[in-house]
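4.2 Preliminary Data

To establish feasibility before requesting continued support, the project team ran the inverse folding procedure on a target of 334 residues. The structure was first converted into the token representation described in Section 3, and no sequence information of any kind was made available to the design step. The complete token record follows.
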């Protein structure tokens, strides 16, 4: 028997022995991590869509096996979570804003499963981490663009629910608009739904009829109204300019990849613990960004573009911090 063959046999024997005693990390290193997600809205909804996109990217790289269920009602959320937990999934994601207590109970019942959930509350030891889309920085920058583009000095804003996750982005946007245009006024309304494009569209129409010429599209449907009325829109979370090339000027983008990749890595290493992943939405972690102006590159005034670039540099260097204001924004327009 050759020395090389003896080495191969020895290596196989060692690997088998380690597997037999359950050597830490060996199984996870060899097998793909089993990941599942539970969503209360369809994959196409912008907030959930960014989580889904990041996990599909990890799946495409061969790092994980990924399953997901969309349009889960709050009443069914706990049941679906439990099914995924008992089904051998090692990491479970989702958004539990309406089912906090039930979701945290599931995490307690499955202490060996890692949970990373969109939440307004704090992490829960040992295995329940939370995240949120803290993209107030690009929201501020997109507001600066909006302030420079409005001719009527009136901006309409349509949100889903007046909760911290929405409020902080709206407030940052408003502050950014005031930065470049102190005269601007705002009309603010909430449709009390995460996904109702027709209702958002009607709310936007009402604001446009009262003089708004730039719309903040926190929900789907707002950009459709702006397009039909020949007005402008600012996107949120995703970039829809390709669908609305003459309407959507700029967008504040949320990139969930930094958070997802961190969680996957820690679970594989056996180091996942309860923590707040909110910081990984910040621009310095590449968790958010201002989308390229694209079709509006030559239409946004040069002085506004220069101010936005300077402010972005200040944000990235730490010279300027966008305030996190979770209070409900109010209309200022008469």
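Position-by-position output of the design step:
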């Amino acid at each position: 028997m050759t020395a090389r063959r003896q080495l191969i046999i020895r290596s196989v024997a060692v690997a088998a022995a380690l597997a037999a005693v359950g050597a830490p990390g060996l199984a996870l290193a060899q097998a793909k991590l089993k990941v599942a997600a539970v969503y209360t809205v369809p994959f196409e909804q912008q907030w959930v869509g960014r989580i889904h996109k990041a996990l599909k990217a990890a799946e495409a790289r061969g790092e994980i096996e990924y399953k997901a269920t969309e349009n889960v009602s709050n009443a069914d959320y706990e049941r679906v979570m439990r099914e995924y937990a008992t089904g051998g999934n090692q990491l479970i994601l989702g958004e539990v804003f309406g089912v906090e207590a039930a979701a945290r109970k599931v995490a307690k019942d499955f202490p060996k499963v890692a949970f990373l959930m969109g939440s307004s509350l704090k992490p829960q030891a040992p295995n329940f981490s939370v995240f949120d889309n803290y993209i107030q920085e690009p929201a501020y920058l997109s507001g600066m663009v909006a302030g420079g583009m409005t001719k009527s000095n009136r901006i309409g804003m349509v949100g889903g629910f007046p909760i911290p996750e929405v409020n902080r982005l709206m407030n940052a946007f408003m502050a950014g608009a005031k930065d470049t245009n102190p005269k601007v006024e705002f009309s603010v309304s909430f449709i009390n739904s995460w996904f109702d494009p027709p209702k958002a569209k009607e709310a936007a129409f009402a604001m446009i009829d009262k003089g708004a010429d730039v719309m903040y599209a926190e929900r789907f449907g707002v950009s459709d109204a702006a397009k039909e009325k020949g007005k402008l829109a600012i996107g949120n979370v995703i970039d829809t300019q390709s669908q609305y090339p003459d309407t959507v000027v700029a967008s504040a983008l949320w990139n969930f990849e930094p958070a997802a990749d961190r969680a996957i890595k820690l679970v594989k290493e056996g180091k996942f613990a309860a923590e707040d992943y909110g910081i990984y939405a910040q621009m310095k972690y590449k968790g958010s960004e201002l989308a390229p102006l694209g079709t509006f590159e030559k239409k946004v005034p040069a002085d506004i573009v220069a101010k936005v670039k300077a402010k972005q540099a200040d944000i990235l260097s730490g010279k300027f911090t966008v305030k996190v204001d979770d209070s409900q924004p109010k209309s200022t327009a008469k």
